[in-house]
Amino acid sequence: MTLIDPVWTSLLYLAAAVCFILALKGLNSPRTARRGNLVGAFGAALAVATVFFSVKMDNVPWILGAMVVGSGVAAPVARQVKMTQMPQLVALFNGVGGGAAALVALLELGHTEDAAVRVAIVFTLLVGAVSFAGSGITFSKLQELMTTRPVVFPGLPPLMAAVLLAAVAAAVGVVFSGSLTLALVLVLLGLAAGVLLVLPVGGADVPIVISLLNAFTGLAVAASGLVLGNVLLVVAGTLVGASGTILTRAMAAAMGRSVAGILFGAFRGGSTAGSTAVSDRPVRSSSAEDVAVLLGYAQRVIIVPGYGLAVAQGQHTAAELALALEERGIDVDFAIHPVAGRMPGHMNVLLAEANVPYESLKEMAEINSEFRTADVALVVGANDVVNPAAKTTAGSPIYGMPILEVADARQVVFLKRSTRPGFAGIENDLMYEPQTTLLFGDAKDSLTKVLSAVKAL
Amino acid sequence: MDGIALLTITVLAVFVGFEVVSKVSSTLHTPLMSGANAIHGIILVGAIIVAGQASDPWVLAVALLAVVLATANLVGGFVVTDRMLEMFRGRKKQLPAKKPEAVDAKAKEGTR
Fold it and tell me: Best of B6, B12, B15, B32 to disrupt the A interface by mutation (most A CBs within 10 Å)?
């Protein structure tokens, strides 16, 4: 195969890097976001095409075959995944990216004697392995293959410290000796560190960890770019590392948390306490017909959708209910907590999918003062985002998280499967208040029943 | 490329990375994260280079595994991001005029 001039390679890589910057820029605004993503994909395609013509390549059929396998698996999954399961898919893709970076660095180890390059190699190995294993645990938590509650055990902090120290020692050893065996030990330590890092994180904070691990993978890719002397990998990886860090902080801020608090909160103890006790206090449960009457004769209804709505695939029914109420002359809005669903902005995506008009989706800052004027706040499958413990209970894991002021509404109706605690594992006192009514059941079933009862009014 | 030039590029890229997402609204946090996730799939370029230079079958096998993983990251990342954003487009059709100001309100809230 004839190779192109190295200058052309550099220029094409530069074009790809510019595409990535424009992609991130475009993703800043809903109007340009989709185009931005396509620009990014174009840049990636350009770079991948370029590499085949820029260095002497063997095994090309094998490589193309591997690319067909990779996209053959990923594209259909990405296209068909339910939007509710999208966060764990992002975690998975992030993890395999980190794994790929670590493998590339591992293979380059034999090709270099340069200590500076070996430093970049051990960095890639460690961070890539942490990202791979951490993303795996994140995936298991979101997919509920394992408990979503923080997993802490005595001796976790010293164990983590020991693993990190051993990793640093192994890394130093690899830099001096270039030993492949030691590099494999380093990878294993990195995997252990990734697991230990994510285990103590509570379910509600997992999205923030995905974002953090995403930044990690970016840094690993940048370091692998230093290993290979490939400017595009350096630029793209650094861009993701830097923007991912900012994004992680912004997400944490939206939840009123600090990143350090999320990662190490469970270490300090206390944050998981008080969540296992299931109360046997009486609640007021009610029938779908009663709820329909409450809603049908209200003047203003605010619907608070949560993850329960999404897992039940009830967003379309919720949209229909809102429409039916509006036809009766009732003012209906959706109050969207920044972290409703499982990731910031997740709920907006889900409701947009159900064709809820944009103007009905109100952000928390906008709607919180309006609960006072609402006759009914209908909380569908949400719990933590309306839990007053965030304001009142200083020891609670969600303490300090801004919540939707549902308690200000004249009546509160919860559609829930049970009174069991939400994703963060904390009981919600609001459910036991006198103005609260509960309708038990799957969110979609309940909404369907309420909808037909409203139509029959 | 010499070390200083790479360092310069890295540092500049850090600042671009900070700058480019500093004002994003919380509505777009998820797609932005997913888009950034797709971009680091460009490690595929590295995996291809390594696989293209492999002569030992074991090295080739590991490199091809890296190619598969990196392709999954890259292709899957862009496809899933596009699917998320497709839904934003549906909404824009209905209310083109309303969008910018509402997004501004969110941006303020998200960065507070």
Answer: B32
